[in-house]
């Protein structure tokens, strides 16, 4: 799954990059708490994160995880005494339906993320089947 914060630029523009850095650190902590030790979590850059779920048996499991991620990110942040909230968009790509190698899975998760953002943000989208 690719996870991208919605309208994150607004945080940097209104509160400064140091506040944005605090939000990113808090998002990383929240993501760490809602993933399993066997999963992989990485920040790809900017406000985009990668979550690789191991042992996903069906697409419904990925939906549950994406919804859990959205809920923890929506919780209010307090940065420099200012309360703020954000949402995220999630692109989901499944093995082997959407690719059999990491490069293909990443590309398809990125396409799905773009679709989620196009659909109004604060949601998720699946990768197209290959």
Defining traits:
single chain; alpha+beta; 130 residues; 4 helices; Alpha-Beta Plaits; two-stranded antiparallel ribbon; 5-stranded mixed β-sheet; 45% helix
How would you describe the overall organization of this protein?
Helix 4 links the parallel strand 6 (88-92) and strand 7 (124-126). The protein is globular and about 45 Å long. The model has no long low-confidence stretch (mean pLDDT 92). The protein has helices at residues 8-15, 17-33, 59-74, 102-118, and strands at 2-5, 40-45, 48-52, 77-79, 82-84, 88-92, 124-126. It has one domain (2-126): Reverse transcriptase/Diguanylate cyclase domain (Alpha-Beta Plaits). The strands form two sheets. It has a five-stranded mixed β-sheet. It has a two-stranded antiparallel sheet with strand order 4-5. It is an alpha+beta fold and 130 residues long.
